[in-house]
Amino acid sequence: MRRHQAFGPVFLLALLLAVTLAFAAVRPAMAQENIRAYHSDIAIGADGELTVAETITVQAEGVDIRHGIFRDFPLTMQDADGRKLRVDFDVVSVTRDGAPEDWTTESITGGIRIYAGSKDTVVSRGEHTYVLTYRTDRQIRFFPDHDELYWNVTGNGWQFAMQRASARVTLPGGATPTRLAAYTGPLGATASNAGMSRASGRADFTTTRALGPHDGLTIVVGIPKGVIALPTADQQRAWWLRDNVNLLLGPASLILIFAYYVWFWRRVGRDPPRGIVVPRWDAPEGLSPALVNYVDNKGFSGGGWTAFSASAIDLAVKGQLTLKDFGDTITLERTATSAAATPFATLPAGQSSLMKTVNGAGGRFVIDKANGTAVQKAGEAFRRAIESEHSGKYYRRNIGYIVPGVVLSLAAIFALIVFGDVDPAILPVVIAPAIVAVVFGLMAVRLGRSFRQGASLARRIFAVVALGFIGLTGLSVLSGALLALLSEIDIASQWPVLTCLIGIVLTNAIFFFLMGAPTPLGRKLMDGIEGLRLYLTVAEKDRMNMAGAPDMSPQHFERLLPYAVALGVEKPWSRAFETWLAAATAGAAAAYTAAWYHGDGFGSFGDRIGGFSSGMASTIQSTLPAPTSSSSSGFSGGSSGGGGGGGGGGGW
Q: In Å, how far are 433, 476, 511, 578, 609 from 572, measured between CA atoms?
């Protein structure tokens, strides 16, 4: 019993010590990061320039304040007439606990952010005092009976509570302020929980209540007229240019770029006048089916596989190849006649390349997924052979005139960003319409081809529905994105930049399509090709009424079938031949077979031949290997918040 009595006090003392130590260890972790004191010394120069030293004492606990603090400052203010002015801002120095501190700046929406500290340094827990000194101009508001400093001392964007905020304003020449006002609380509040005093040459303000996060202290100091020099005429002109740089630089850039494109479009981009289109039943100038596709589309359509297919069918009709269609596999097989025929050099460029491919495969070239890489190489060689011989002969893209326009546009955008007052948040607003404009433009051009003469009613209806769907979807997505972005942007000051940047992008997109133009020879051939399309797609009775038109026959049908494939009208041409077969004598209909084509298809001849011809390019493309890709990750009433100054801050 005595041992328990002796041990009891010692045990209780040890327990009390342990609890005390634990509480001491936990207490720092329980402390909240805040601003203990925020004091601003504002010295007004005789020319109206402000030199401001903000002394900010914070409690750091390693939560938000790890490397230091940041301070946001707006680069605009409203003058006495409510106009938004652009102000200068220069950081003089940053210190922490009396020693120089590293600092950096970055642009933010409507202002600048100052980071005090370094990412390589972690501040210790406890109390730290930062002093940020900077200069700014154009913060004095001029009225008929007085001048004034209307100044948001702390800003309303701080993420921390403030235990106390204060400010001292020093006037030049020892002038005494005429009157004072102070506002505290969140943005727009008119409460005045602050003490104020004035004396010769200065005014002092101190809050009488703590400020919560996003609360602030705003002050107004009346200044006798004549103490601050009025801006000179030169200063006013320079400031006007600075305030209106967007309104001047943006439209000037847009006009310059538009004038550049119009000038050169009038010189090299205007299409030669169209000729009279009359029906014809042969290719103009003896063009091959591949060249008809190339000229008609101002380049290859369908990645060149439509021209490839038309060339293969043309070679088959002429007895050079046999085509075997087995669903997902197509075989191009050299005929015995081809093996003993004249050299490939006598064939059109694309067909010569295709025959070399078949010959290189031992006379039998299989188009299927297993042979996808070889098919891809064959297509590349085919297109290269035609383009090397005919590029620039029928159509000039005039890229040499587009590239300088793009460079000029990039220089103009760079000048707007560097010399103009551009909100960084506005750039996504420009990028979004640019992407939609380019994508929609490309889709419109592709689908617009469906309206060509000879296209079926179903195809035209599909094109209209597709264009409407793409347009509606694109505009819906774009409008939603723009509304979200524009809600955070000061449209009143940024609309000249927004309008002109979008205008520059759209000007480039429009003239990318307009600058290219057919050559006189190309225009003539395009008129002839349009006449051939007209002949291939008109109704049978209209075709029969054409003076001098040849009678339909198997030979006539086969000779023009490759051209129908090249022009995308093989189905109406095949149906026309099928109609003729049905009306011909039984012997003629029974005697006809396409010796150059073997397939497993069912249905009428027109369905089988037309279906194979139109689907051949799609079948070939389905056999190609998937493209490789790589991925990377990369990671008169005032209120609180009014006047100049302001901003906010936090820890980082």
A: 40, 38, 35, 10, 11
